[in-house]
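Section 5.1 Outputs to date
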Amino acid sequence: MEKINVAILGASGAVGREMLKILEEYDIPVAKLLPLASARSAGGYVKFHGEDVLIEEATDESFAGMDYVLGAVKNGMSKRFAPAIVKSGAVYIDNSSAFRLDENVPLVVPEINGADAFENKGIIANPNCSTIITLTAIAALNKGVINTADKIKCEGVYTKYSAEGYSPECWIWNANKNEHLKHPEENTSTAIRDSCNYYFYTIGNELGVDYLGEVAHAFGLGVSTGIELVETKGNMSNRENHYDYAGSEWRIGDTLQAAIGQSDSIFSPLQMAEYAATLANYGDRHSASILKTVRSYDYSEKVYEREPEVLSHVESATYNWDAVKEGMHLVVNYPGNQAVYENFIKCSFTKVRNGETYGVNGKTGTAQKGEGITNDGMFICYAPADDPEIAISIVVERGGSGANVSFIARDILNAYYVIRGYSDSAEEEMTLLK
């Protein structure tokens, strides 16, 4: 592979430094590295292959001669410099949400649609999709912001900060073209079932982002999963590195967006699967791993067996966990959530008892891309609900909605239900095959 010239816009921030690590760990053949940042952050140094490299101030002229520019800034700075980057002839790989709504910009998840990266007009976008409102619920319940029985009435538009020019809407507000809609009064479980943004704006405002970040890390979001492979840790929205993403100071609106998994939050599908498993395990976060056992060359002797490792624990009362799990149960088993309900009524883990379904707990997520653009779909789940064995995270670009892509998790569960009965031990030499 030919050597390339790479600039990192936002190199002084956490994501920018993580990009540097990835360039090193994957041994990307970089001929010239150009770390860039705002005037306030320029002048420092970053380490690259053991050498100190000066962070320069980003200007329109900075990108001349670059092959690729990696964007580790938020929307404002991204939109500010994107035209200059494209004009220079470089390809801009943007990690903000500035271009995720642009139908002319490919939205790429490398593991899913990596080939789309080659069909670009100078800009490539990365998605930021999350289903972390169950985390927000646990954090608020722990802090006493709410209890499991408290109800909040959805008004459709959160107007507490309207005087400051910020009034975020619940997703349902404009779901009907003919009239504005609202959710009814919601408690913890029903708010999770309905994905009521208004509910989570309200408790997120009272909770604050600092404690939310602590709980997110305990759930495994924005930190290492423990897997024995190179990975990026992503980021949970926080005050400390927000400027590096957004080019602006932290505002209350960022706290509200963080409460529903947006703002600067960047998580991997594996982190989301580990998060689902932590919910299933009442707060115990086990390390992800690709290793189960090591056997001798002839498979006759087990020389090593990996033991479960708990990386962190989210402490909360059992009744708090039960309320959150009930919400996830309703997502899958409530007939009002028709698409998900119809998918999982056919799942091998789903049982019917006294006229009610049970067996799989899950949470949908939909990244809205803008008018005329098909949304991305996300879904997490674990099963069996009463004695969990498997956790799943699904991300489908342009999948429409989390409900639309939930059938993929159902099919995985059905396959797992069959495969788990197979023996993982090989037949010994000179014995009949079973």
